[in-house]
Amino acid sequence: MSATRLYLVRHGRASAGWDTSIDPELDALGREQSIQLAQHLAPLGPMQVVSSPLTRCQQTAGPLCKAWNTTAQICHEVAEIPSPEGVPISERVEWLRSAMSGTWESLGSRYTKFRDDLVNFVRQITQDTVVVSHFVAINAIIGSIESSDRLVLHRLDNCSVTIVERHTDGKLKLVEVGREADTLIR
Length: 186
Description:
Helices cover 36% and strands 16% of the residues. By secondary structure, it is an alpha/beta fold. A hairpin with a 5-residue loop joins strand 5 and strand 6 (172-176). It is globular.
């Protein structure tokens, strides 16, 4: 049996930053990016679509789901890295920038559990699937494949597609890193 292909998609550009909105929608560019993504991936399917519960991911998955006449499965396991407890929304970007320069271990058990749950969830997917998720979450999957504890290994652009193979034993292999950009965390 051949390996399962997982297409890890970073959501399109959001209408607000991490320090101003907990769950922003896509902005006009993000909506256009999601349409272009659907045009790019549509010939590969239909296949299962999994999305983070956050609006920007569901909206990114929307045009592809429409093309395949399917509905995205909403999974908390592929959600955004959780905000630290006690940090006001206005200080989240500063916290995230600092966290992104470090390691999962340095963030503590709440974050290593988030990473481990995410990676274990992805390892359980047994059919070709598009997973619409987030910058840090996709980096966590790449890090597990590359045996790296760093939060950020690649600066994945909005609507970039990282391709991973999942073998029958659950082992993941990185096939292709998605398009990178000078990502602005806003």
